[in-house]
Amino acid sequence: MYEVVSAMSRRAEEILSELTQELRAKLDEINAQEDLMQRDPAQQQELQAALQQWVELYRSLPKPTLISLWEKLHEAPSTE
């Protein structure tokens, strides 16, 4: 039982790391666009809307622990 919980914990940490990297990459991309669009208010509003959409999507994701649990419950049974 401890091994399963430990493995799920490690997987949850991996998932969190992947999500964090993905979010940082998206924010870097948006920051680069923002620097280019400083002069146009309409484009700034579009950029802010895109950022808000990304943040909402990120917030709506299940917690990494729940994703790890789902993966464990739905993995193929081992033949040990």
Which outline best applies? elongated
Order of SSEs: HHH
**Beta-strand segment tally:** 0
Determine the strand fraction and express it as a percent band.
Answer: under 5%
Task: Describe the overall structure.
The protein is an all-alpha fold. It is built from three helices and no strands. It has one domain. The longest helix has 35 residues.
Secondary structure: elements and pairs:
Blueprint (H helix, E strand, L loop, with lengths): L1 H35 L4 H20 L3 H11 L6
In a nutshell, what does this entry contain?
The chain has helices at residues 2-36, 41-60, 64-74.
Features:
elongated; 80 residues; 3 helices
